[in-house]
UniProtKB/TrEMBL annotation:
Entries under PANTHER family matching the protein: CYTOCHROME C-TYPE BIOGENESIS PROTEIN CCMH, CYTOCHROME C-TYPE BIOGENESIS PROTEIN CYCH
Residues of the CcmH/CycL/Ccl2/NrfF N-terminal domain: 8-147
Leader peptide range in chain numbering: 1-19
Protein name: Cytochrome c-type biogenesis protein
Transmembrane segments: 103-124
Amino acid sequence: MKRFLTILLLVLMPMTALAVQPDEVLDDPALETRARELSKGLRCLVCRNENIDDSNADLARDLRLLVRERLVAGDTDEEVIDFVTERYGEYVLLQPRTGGTNMILWLAGPAMLLLAFGIGFAYVRKRGQGQEEVLSTDEEARLKEILDR
């Protein structure tokens, strides 16, 4: 059993290293490092929650090549990200931006939580302030009679 697990581990271990092909790697180590960092923040549109640096999908390869192409052309990191998001939408970002229309999504959760606490507090407070019932004179006399016994 141990031998089987060892062989399985050795077979599956290089699978993640196969994502970036040798022909994709840039000659300039600084540009390659930038490309790797940018690729880790971009989502593979085929694999969903995997970055394009780790994905073996053809679309991820195309995106990696696009990122490297833009870097070689002289774009800054922000320009590359803007180009890719303009082309594929904000879904391609693994860390969505917190500005613009996304601000509604970022603030909706905490706002709903505060609203729920407010409604709960108001309900409990109103429930605790129940109206006191006043006893009639007959009921007061009967109560006094019971307590005196």
